[in-house]
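Checklist before submission:
- one chain only
- standard amino acids only
- sequence pasted in full

Submission:
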Amino acid sequence: MKHLENPYVECAPAALPVFDTAAAEARIEALLPDLENCVSTHELPSSTGHPTGDPTIYTGICGLSLAFYRLGVYKGAEGGQYFQRSLHVAAMCRMTHPSSGEVSFYCGTPGALAIEAAAAHALGLGDLRQSALDSILTFSAAAQAHKDDELLFGRAGYIYALLWARKHTPGASHDGFDDALRAVAEAAVASGEALAAARRYAGSGWPLMWECFNSPYLGAAHGHLGILAMLYRCWPLLSARSHMLVRDTTAKLLAERFPKTGNLPIVLGDRGDGHVKWCHGAPGLPALCAAAIAAHGDTADGALEAAARAAANVTWQQGVLLKGFGLCHGIAGNGYALLSMYRLTHDEAWLQKARAFAAMCDDPQITKEIEKQPDPQRRMVGKPDSPFSLMEGSAGLLCYILDVAVPEASSFPGWEV
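Returned file contents:
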């Protein structure tokens, strides 16, 4: 069993848990001491208690930098101390040389630089902000030449770093960003077109095809969904031919959904319909569909919004995951699909469901079920390998609680801009 029954699935919206801002802020305060301790010791403990040594945003200490930045934004005029913490952590997480293959937001130095630029901007440190922005551009050539296109490690992840850094540094100089975005995005399209024409996919009907780990993954972290969303987010920079290929590939992707649920298989051709999580499945679809609608509008029959709704529905029904409360494959990450749907439709029912997911992240019975769940992929029963991290642990849960409190400005960290 991968998920628990959603205890609210049959409830009318009015019967769902009410969001209590004071209780949410108390939950945030309860999460903070462990994160503060990780920053002060410069160590992120694993589930076994030993430091992970991981500097990334994904499951490493730089993810705490993003969580503190988000907390600073939420606190407004009182956010300075959190921006300082964010800047401190991001600055120590510059990992690699611009010629390296570690180019993505989640798993490369461009992510740390993007947060450094944003935190410096919030603190009024213009020179430091510009230095970080300029440094992100030095990874452009490595991103263009990268062997992968996907979000977690590859070109799509570099595109996200540029887009996020630009959004969070208004008024700064972003000279060269459009050129880098265009070049890397078109390289991803060219890569997808070449693989679609290769012998093993020729005649399959896919205009663009991508692989990761030698497999045609479809989800957000490693697959088509994640790559396509980033291409839509730099839509004005793409050629007319790329527009056609991206739109047709999106239609092909949606045709691969399981007809009864609207969920996606993990890998093309997989018949298993049991994975409903952001990294591999339906929860990434509302954000993709929203990005496509923002780029070129919906189809005449409203197919994109309908696909987003079906994905949000299966996430609501099957998204209370026994993997835990994290973003990548947990309850909070699935809750973001409901927030995406709320921003797309402005339907309060989706916001109430997202709030119910936040309540379930503080439910003692659900916590108990998670803590006893065996998982051969983990070192410890009932615990993520990186329990304080952004994508597996409490730093990501903190971000989700903040975003449920301010839903109009919400965005899945590292995925939505």
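Reviewer check: The two ends are 33 Å apart (CA to CA).
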